[in-house]
Design brief:
The complex is a heterodimer of chains A (147) and B (142). By secondary structure, chain A is mainly alpha-helical. Chain A is built from 6 helices and no strands. In chain A, α5 runs antiparallel to α6. Chain A is globular and about 45 Å long. Chain B has one domain. Chain B is globular, with a radius of gyration of 17 Å. The two termini of chain B are 28 Å apart. Classes of the chains: A mainly alpha (147), B mainly alpha (142).
Chain lengths: 147, 142
């Protein structure tokens, strides 16, 4: 059941990324460093996503736990330097390649040639970080806040 | 200006936000790369299956849209070197800070101040690399 729910949410998110056009690699540059007319797609689309998520979560705020699982992943704690540096690295990569990971999965479904290269590199970067951070031992998923 | 119509962009964004909220309410999971792809690298029992299901849903929806010719491939913006280096940086960042774009947008919707700070950090990084691309004249193939 939990898999079915996750599959459904994936389909919903994919349709959202396609209908809004948010998966397109050109949007970031058009939003942050436009040449000519300012392309507001990224800001409007993400703003809409934020608004709806905030609204639905506010309506469900009295719920104590998830419907199909035992616990809810807590929001990570305060803006640590690791979180901020991680964010900057993420942004640097997004700016260079034009994709963020979930957008690249959508682009992969569209059989865009660059998507598979980008996603392979993302996986490589994640594994590389684990190797360096744990001296060769792959760590478990960072689902819990690790201080 | 917008790439699609205002309706499309707002509706599409709303679906993304709805997907985030539903995934959290139903499965307790955050819709982010670090949670989704991360659990494929090893994690708690049962979570990897849900992550694969989510990513499969994402892939299937775009694959079907493509097959029905409702949407066309995005134009290739950059060459192989930038895709590889960009991907590596994104992967490092995701793992270092549990920082991802949609995860942070959703985090902001959960009123997390950290998510807001991470979004600003992501945008700062993006401005730097876009400026770098412009300065080096590698808007196309690097």
């Amino acid at each position: 059941m939990i898999r079915l729910a996750a599959l459904f949410c994936g389909v919903l998110c994919g349709i959202g990324l396609i209908v809004s056009g948010l998966f397109q690699p050109a949007l970031l540059k058009g939003f942050l460093m436009p040449e000519g007319v300012w392309n507001m797609t990224l800001g409007v689309g993400l703003g809409s996503a934020f608004g709806v998520a905030a609204l639905v979560l506010a309506l469900a705020r009295h719920r104590t736990g998830p419907l199909l699982a035992t616990e809810t992943e807590p929001p990570a704690e305060g803006p640590t330097s690791k979180a901020l540096l991680g964010g900057v690295l993420f942004g640097l990569g997004w700016g260079l390649a034009g994709y963020f990971p979930l957008a690249a999965v959508v682009a992969l479904g569209l059989l865009a040639p660059g998507a598979v290269i980008f996603l392979t590199s993302v996986l490589g970067g994640m594994i590389l970080f684990d190797l360096v951070a744990n001296r060769g031992r792959l760590r478990a998923v960072g689902l819990r806040s690790r201080g | 200006m917008l790439t699609g119509t205002l309706d499309e962009v707002v509706l599409g964004g709303a679906l993304i936000g709805l997907a985030f909220a539903m995934l959290l309410i139903l499965t307790g999971r955050v819709m982010s790369t670090s949670a989704m792809v991360g659990s494929l690298l090893g994690g708690r029992e049962g979570l990897a299956a849900a992550s694969i299901a989510f990513i499969a849903g994402l892939f299937i929806s775009s694959f079907v849209f493509n097959a029905l010719e409702f949407v066309s491939q995005p134009p290739v913006e950059v060459g192989l070197p930038l895709l590889v280096v960009g991907g590596l940086l994104v992967g490092l960042g995701v793992r270092m800070g549990n920082s991802s774009l949609l995860g942070s947008i959703g985090g902001l919707a959960r009123l997390s101040g950290r998510a807001g700070a991470v979004i600003l950090a992501i945008m700062a990084g993006a401005v730097i690399s876009l400026a770098l691309r412009q300065a080096l004249g590698t808007g196309g193939v690097a």
